[in-house]
Amino acid sequence: MEGLEHILRQHPFFADFAPEHGALVAGCARNHRFDPGDYLFREGDPADEFFLIRHGKVALEIVAPGQAPIVFATLGPGEIVGEAWLVPPYRWTIDARATELVRAIGIDAACLRGKCEADHHLGYEMMKRFLPVFIRRLHATQLQILDVYGKKR
Amino acid sequence: MVPESVSAAASLPDPFVPQIYRVGRLRRELHDTVTLELAPSAGRRPAFRPGQFNMLYVFGVGEIAVSLSGDSTDETHFVHTVRDVGAVSKAITELGTGATIGLRGPFGVGWPVEAAEGSDVVLVAGGLGLAPLRPAIYHILANRVRYGRVVILFGSRNPHDMLYRHELEEWRQHLDISIEVTVDHAEADWHGNVGVVPALIPRATFDRHNTIALVCGPEVMMRYSASALAEAGVPPERIYLSMERNMKCAIGLCGHCQFGPTFICKDGPVMQFARIAKIFAIREV
Amino acid sequence: MQHRPDGGTKAVISREALQQLIEALSAENCRVLGPTVRDGAIVYDEIAQVGNLPAGWTDRQEAGRYHLERREDDALFGFAVGPQSWKQFLHPPVETLWTARQGDDGISIATDRSETPIFAFIGVRACELHAIAIQDRVFLDGPYRDVTYGMRRQDAFIVAVNCGNAAATCFCASMGTGPKVDAGFDLALTELIDATRHEFVVEVGSEAGGDLLDRLPHRPAANADLLAAEAVIARTQSAMGRRLETDGLKELLQANLNHPRWDEVAARCLACGNCTSVCPTCFCTTVEDHSDLMGSSAERIRKWDSCFTLDFSYLHGGSVRTTASSRYRQWMTHKLASWIDQFGTSGCVGCGRCITWCPVGIDITAEAAAIRATPQSRKGEPHGGT
Predict the structure, then answer these.
(1) Residue range of the domain that includes B33
(2) β-sheet with C41-46: strand ranges across
């Protein structure tokens, strides 16, 4: 347990996190290793765990019938994979695939949701860390849909 | 009654008149993008600074502004990378070796490559925006010891439309330069980054207290990149963007390229973000 | 024998001496240009004799309206300004910059500078002198100079006139550009006309002006003449039809780029560009490249352009300023605000032409006042109640 707590503290996502909150989150955490090509999760699966990447790269994909999978983002060390665990119905809407050897911390969603509900200080600290991640991804998505490098005519 | 400046002007060479250049080597970069070497038909090639541009005239078709994309220390010719997006640029991409072309320039304010000495340099390019940054990259690589960390962040539409792909590989061989490339969209066989280029900024390693950022690409990409750089702690007076507006004269006399109080042709094209931040996000300025 | 007049000298000449002045300038191969009545307006054209000047005519101007009326006297300069300005001579609407030829060994480019006329302008108003000075700064004081403008400008001889009339659209007094001429002329006239006399007080503004006055019959100005001339200017000053409050205007406009007034004025604006054509300082141009049918020669033509056209801001694939509101904003904020950043003065001289010649009567002074009256701010009640 202490090892996980230490690893969590090193992760940029939890920079300046209070020690007691770190211990609470560590209680929901476990280590993961994904080989290249392994899926962290797939569309439609229950969103019962999200991931903090420590090492390696993860591709987020959407598949349409008759087409090759489209990668719309890649995430690397220090970043978070997965948002759907935060809101009902807690199911993944995308695929997340390791494109190289990935080491990550997985955090049990139900466990952390429960702790946040019980300790709103922890919940608010988590929200302050997640929201900027979402906002940055929203901005990236806005820019992406503009297709700025395409021709205007 | 005539001010002194009036009498002085009449004897100078006319900046409206193009000089004749001849097309040398050509290289097709992408399906719609060509790099040309242009050598003066007489005399020496004028000096230029990374980030400056020329006005290129195709006989009977017209004239457009195109950034220099070659090495400023190569004194035999100018290099331009041109994408076919209109009548004149299409005509330029169709020129053959030996053809003649009219050229005025170089014009404008370039990248602050001297002011950046002693600092980390982050170059953020999107699409064809890598072309105006390439002379700065050549300059920095040729004077590598004068700079701190050098980071190139480059975004393309997809892996097939990636400008200077081979050269990026060559630069990557330098151990002392960090290059991250990303594409907006890719299929699963692409092993590189996917996502927009501003997303690379928080992942890059540089000293936010001592960094100069040079940004070039579509305007929206530059707006998002400037925000991401500011969020990463780079002050707005150390972020530089290469702006683009309609240009006719290139010398501040025709009024077309105004951007608020500035003329892009003579106050830019490279502009300090701090100088334009207030109007950068206002529509239709 | 009279003493030789020099700068600042004031003399009095008759209507007949004015005729001799025109002849003297013509004899020096000047193209003598001045106001004359044509097509129901006072325009600037070739002047061979005093009789070509608009004797006895005045102009009535209002927003979107202009017409000529007879005066009760035969004053030669008893009007304000017409639709034209001296810009059309110094900065012509169409100009061939160069011609190119396609030969066996590629293209060659040549310019033709043989025909640069020497201009003599008769009847240049204070606002117009300021407009010329503004265009001098645009074309000659930057890092690059407009060579052909410089050639046309360098030998121009300027006979200015202190205004005896202000139109309802005039606001030079509030711009600090008139009605009294202060600099930039060779000779300056003030027309004195009443039942007993028709004469002109002449002020010498340059050595060339002094030389020319020396060759005309004149007498030294008496104190009474000078007082009469001052009275003419004072009367015009007080008759000014409009005013533009310039205090803090640059900052006001630049802080209000998203003001709803831009949309309101755009609802009336036809984006016709009349204001830019008649403005004596608007300098924007475009270029056109023409080639002959054989494809062996081509020329580059420079033409007046207007920031009200869609093409003006075209950038591969689309225009930056697609809405009339953004184009009106560009014109007005450039004229009244960013011009100061660029060239050190306002781009407006208060001549009122843009008001008169706007087909829907948009009034730049009213638009500026409207924004001043309701500067943008966060509207609504305070957060959290009071």
Answers:
(1) 19-107
(2) C41-46, C30-38, C118-124, C157-162, C187-193, C198-204, C10-14, C219-220
Q: Which of A38, A63, A70, A74 to mutate to test the interface with B (most CBs of B within 10 A)?
A: A74
Residue-wise pLDDT tens digits, B145-192: 999 999 999 999 999 999 999 999 999 988 799 999 999 988 888 889
pLDDT tens digits along A35-71: 999 999 999 999 999 999 999 999 999 988 888 888 9
In a shared domain, residues B95 and B124: no
pLDDT tens-place string over residues B9-52 = 444 567 899 999 999 999 999 999 999 999 999 889 999 999 99
Residue A103 lies in a domain: yes
Indicate if B152 and B204 belong to the same structural domain.
yes
B134 and B271, same domain (yes or no): yes
DSSP output for B33-79: EEEEEEEESSSPPPP--TT-EEEEEETTTEEEEEEB-S-TT--S-EE
Q: Do residues B69 and B136 share a domain?
A: no
Chain B hits for A61, CB-CB cut-off 8 Å, are 188
Interface confidence (ipTM) of the complex = 0.90
CATH number of the domain that residue A141 is part of: 2.60.120.10
What residue in C sits closest to A153 (Cα-Cα)?
C317
Taking CB atoms and an 8 Å limit, are B260 and C287 in contact across chains? no
